[in-house]
Amino acid sequence: MAAGRKASRSARRSAVTEPKLTPSLPAHDAAMIAPGSGWGLRNRMARIVQPDGRSVMLAVDHGYFLGPTSRLEVPRRTVEPLLPFIDSLMCTRGVLRTSVPAVSTTSVVLRVSGGPSIVGPNLANEHITTTMREALRLNCVGVGMSIFVGTAHESQTVRNLGELVNEAEDIGMPVLAITAVGKELEKRDARYLSLCCRLAAEIGAHMVKTYYCEDFEKVVEGCPAPIWVAGGPKLDEAEALELTYNSIQAGAVGVDMGRNIWQSEHPVAMVQAVRAVVHEDYTVKEAFAFFSELSGR
């Protein structure tokens, strides 16, 4: 019996660590993710969400408001080693053009909103900065933008989302709504995030990115669109893996994680450990042991 479990775990690890060289061709019908949508939108969604119904998205769009943040000073050095182990990459068009090899088969969700920076008075005053035509030209499978619920720019950013969804529906492009909190991290509770996520889904977002919180099951239950959980500021690796595990157990489709992967001292090991939790059902203890093994800790 023990030998059988060991062989099974070995097979699982092999599946996780082998780089993904070709796009996944899901066997499931992605209409379950985007009900009533056309083939093009469902096909793009199926390139983000894998056949097991889960997804690992890597966020490297931080520079659009933070500038050259730690470990992302030279995006290509950060991004390229991680591409084989993710299902999709979230970035701006500038980073995509300059820092992602054109031969890459990793799906891209394009950040299309922006405006304010971290040194400005308010991060919420965002606008659409990149056209849908540009997203098509760059061969993206989705577009993403932030909404700032409860701020002075709530109406503006929600209207941005509605207009983006209208354009996206014309060409079958999935839209990821990001429930941003700006500098006010204390807003991350179930009541507030449930409001944000439901609002985004009601406006028409096909995917929602939000934060994990206590009673996260209620956030998932109240949102008709699939949810990805943000990693947020850098955590210890074990804590980040626990965040990933708890998110999946509570019903999230996956994670859209950035700093907790590429700010790790061992980012390639970390992304594989995160992937093991999302796609291979590793526990936190198993995933951290896997990370330690890969990183030589």
Lay out the secondary structure.
Layout: H1 2-17, H2 39-46, E1 55-59, H3 63-66, H4 75-79, E2 88-91, H5 93-99, E3 107-111, E4 113-114, E5 127-128, H6 132-137, E6 142-147, H7 154-171, E7 175-179, H8 190-203, E8 207-210, H9 216-221, E9 227-230, H10 237-249, E10 254-257, H11 259-262, H12 267-280, H13 284-295
Helix pairs in contact: 1-12, 10-12, 10-13, 12-13
How would you describe this structure to a colleague?
- It is a single chain.
- The protein has 297 residues and is α/β, with parallel strands linked by helices.
- It has one domain (38-295): Aldolase class I (TIM Barrel, Alpha-Beta Barrel), CATH 3.20.20.
- It contains 13 helices and 10 strands.
- α10 runs parallel beside α12.
- The protein is globular and about 50 Å long.
Known CATH architecture: Alpha-Beta Barrel
Q: Looking at the chains present, what oligomeric state does this protein adopt?
A: single chain
The H-level CATH homologous superfamily, spelled out, is: Aldolase class I
As for the number of domains, it is: 1
Let me know the average pLDDT. Answer: 90
Distance, first to last CA:
29 Å
Number of helices: 13
Helix content: 40-55%
Structural class by SSE content: alpha/beta
Q: How many beta-strand segments?
A: 10
Order of helices and strands: HHEHHEHEEEHEHEHEHEHEHHH
CATH topology, anyone? TIM Barrel
CATH class: Alpha Beta
Strand order of the largest sheet: 1-2-3-6-7-8-9-10
The description of the largest β-sheet is: 8 strands, parallel, barrel
Radius of gyration: 18 Å
Share of β-strand residues: 5-15%
